[in-house]
Amino acid sequence: MIAIPSPSFEEERVSNHVQSWMEARGMHPQRFGNNLVCRLNPRPGAPVLMLCAHLDTVSPASDYSFDPYKPDAEVAAERVSAIRGEHLSPEEVIAGLGSNDDGASATAQIAVFRFFSAHPELLGEKNLLLALSCQEERSGPEGMRSLWKEQLEGEVDAAIVGEPTAMQAAISERGLLVLDAVAHGLSGHAARNEGVNALYIAIEDIAAMRAHRFGRKSPVMGDINLNVTQINAGTAHNVIPDRCSFVVDIRTTEQYTSKEILDELQGICKSTLTPRNLTNRSSACRPLSPLMKAAADCRTVCFSSPTTSDWMRISCDALKMGPGDSSRSHKKDEYVLCSELMDGVVKYVEFIQKLNLQH
Description:
The chain has helices at 12-24, 73-84, 99-118, 144-152, 198-211, 258-266, 290-297, 338-354; strands at residues 30-32, 35-40, 48-54, 93-95, 127-133, 158-161, 169-173, 175-184, 188-189, 225-233, 239-240, 243-252, 272-275, 283-284, 302-305, 317-320, 335-337. The protein starts with 11 loop residues before the first helix and ends in a 5-residue tail after the last helix. It is built from eight helices and 17 strands. It is α/β, with parallel strands linked by helices. It is globular, with a radius of gyration of 23 Å.
């Protein structure tokens, strides 16, 4: 999987590869675009647990120490050993883009699905569904969003969203609101101090947003997190810019809808704020969730996650859990340890066996 470039919207080749691999081993995945779905229904009418992970990746960072798609095993092991401060052999390391996010969860969940396919009696009174989605990293419309609405909604009772959490259970996660902001001014000659500088308007708005505090604080996730991540203005050194654009990344909580946050920020800004998407909501386990009960029975550490996932695109009870570490994602020299992958398979199986689902 790592050797096949699969950035969001370009997952066809990796989806073909995974589908062929699964079919060669007696699995029967259904294809919906570049999404793959497998069902195991030993108990007709029983509740359905969905395992889901994504097949796409971000683009590789420019400063990788090894080839992000086909790393030299010795070089990668040396680099990972240096990162971790311990000696690791090439046989202990799986390195490359997507190894941690989200190849580890995807392969572990495939292994778990195959295990229960061979031993359906160990599932208890529930059925199992495996969904491998595309376009997750870019919130694309043809990934889990459409897969859920068109194929899975109403069938699935609970879900384990596979993301690198070191097999701890994220029982809530922040949502995401991205704003494209544009400050409008009036161009003029810099030497004569003409015009209205759009860059200064943007700077004032950025300062206002940084100083702003939202009134409602989440008891689980804390305050809303806001960061300006991109800015662009100007055409020449001697021209007052009449336009300045900047991007605001906001990690939301359950205390506010995206629309409420947008309206509140627009009220303190002169710049025009345009949301890219108002649907990337925050998520949390339902009260008295059987998923949380299973986590307690397995003595799994629970936490609130700062990152988003396909969880926000499904409407059933869910939590997020998978092998690997989120701190390795979206940066150079991505890796996962074979021991983490195997530990993930074992813990997924234990968790699923302890999970008692009801409609």
